[in-house]
Amino acid sequence: MRTHAAGRTTRIGTAGGNLALATAAFTLTLWAWNLIAPLSRSYAGALGLTGAQTTVLVALPALSGAVALVVVGVLTDRLGGRVSLAAVCAATAVPTFLLGVASTSYGLLVLWALLLGVAGASFAAGLPFVASWYPSGRRGFATGVFGAGMFGMGLSTYLTPRLVTAVGAAGTHLALCAALVAMGVVTWVFGRDAPGWRPPPGAPRIRVRDAFGLAVAWRAALLYAVAFGGVVAFTTALPTALTTDHAYTAAEAASRTTGFAVVAMLARACGGLLSDRIGAARVCVASFAGTGVFAVALALHPLAGFLAGAAFTLVAASLGLGTGGVMALVAEAVDPRQVGTVSGMAGAGGALGGLLPPVLLTVVHRATGEYTLGFVLLAVTALALAVYAARTVRARSSPGG
């Protein structure tokens, strides 16, 4: 069976192989991107860090990642996804190695955390890479499957502390460093840009200016900031919420947090598939409406067990659908020659969106002893975005609209 990609005939198996390769690279780099958070208590204990210093340290990869996403998005439009994705894997290995062997002071940790932001930029390299392999009617599927690689963050939360216990911090970081280098080599050797792909004409400065002038790019950044930022916030806050508000043990809370990440990952793929069938705009509306409703359910303090588990699961599914829908929107509405830059902008929105909610939830919990106000704020924000998406995202038929 054959399909069309980039104006020429190519085997679906080849498209699928590159999609699998990019998804694996995205998963691994997001594992690295989330390395600091699971080990933050260890850093705090070893270096005597304050709560504020620890919060800043955890947030730095997302902050620098927002900048790296835009830069790598621009480079991907120019150099192609294969080169860019392989380069991000190799570059991520450097701070991963340094975190494991040279974290003897807070200043060094801050520097390595800033450098680690490059790991998140794999999103801006991989999304246009996989989207270019598929025709417009299947790009939602491609971007949804690729985006499921965000499960790497959940893997990091669950496995990194266990690996450190088993083989030590240095051994864990060196193993991940080796995996990143190997992934970069495999991507470089076996990855292929879609047939017919060519660098777009014109100066990069002009292309960036044009991309930043697209209304759909800013809409995608706003929507992704809440959808992906919500997933990050819950992944960060759930271990504490489940142990303090629902009396789970630390191990039980970690397992349930991983489950949340799995549900969000699967829902992201489903969001891409649904976007191919009913349109990305409708998926975004359904996602934010569902998030708002189920956040209200969480604010009503469901009992620990089935009811609380169902509410958290439905929030994960709703947010995951949104991440898939937003990226399908980018693939649908944006000129293929600008997908890298625009996906970098949207990814930067998601990275920045992942900064505020965890901090806000921490402040709310310290002030009130519970997360109710945080859930209420999420509900209000999500429902407002559902209305916004219903009114404006439908203009995607015009890239500038």
Detailed description of the structure:
It is a single chain. This protein is globular. It has a two-stranded antiparallel ribbon. It has 401 residues and is an all-alpha fold. The chain is 78% helix and 2% strand. A hairpin with a 2-residue loop joins strand 1 and strand 2. It has a single domain, classed as Growth Hormone, Chain: A (Up-down Bundle), CATH 1.20.1250.20. It contains 16 helices and 2 strands.
Number of strands: 2
- Give average pLDDT, whole number: 84
- The proportion of residues in beta strands is under 5%
Radius of gyration: 20 Å
Q: What is the terminal-to-terminal distance?
A: 36 Å
CATH architecture: Up-down Bundle
Total number of distinct structural domains: 1
Order of helices and strands: EEHHHHHHHHHHHHHHHH
Structural class, by secondary structure, is mainly alpha
Strand order of the main beta sheet, please? Answer: 1-2
Helix content: over 70%
> CATH topology, what is it called?
Growth Hormone, Chain: A
Q: Helix tally?
A: 16
Outline the low-pLDDT stretches.
Answer: 1-13, 396-401
CATH class placement:
Mainly Alpha
What is the assigned CATH homologous superfamily? MFS general substrate transporter like domains
Largest beta sheet, briefly? 2 strands, antiparallel
Give the overall form: globular
List the helices and strands and how they pair.
Layout: E1 2-5, E2 8-11, H1 12-33, H2 40-47, H3 51-79, H4 81-101, H5 106-115, H6 122-131, H7 139-147, H8 151-190, H9 204-212, H10 215-244, H11 250-278, H12 280-299, H13 306-333, H14 339-353, H15 356-368, H16 372-392
Antiparallel strand pairs: 1-2
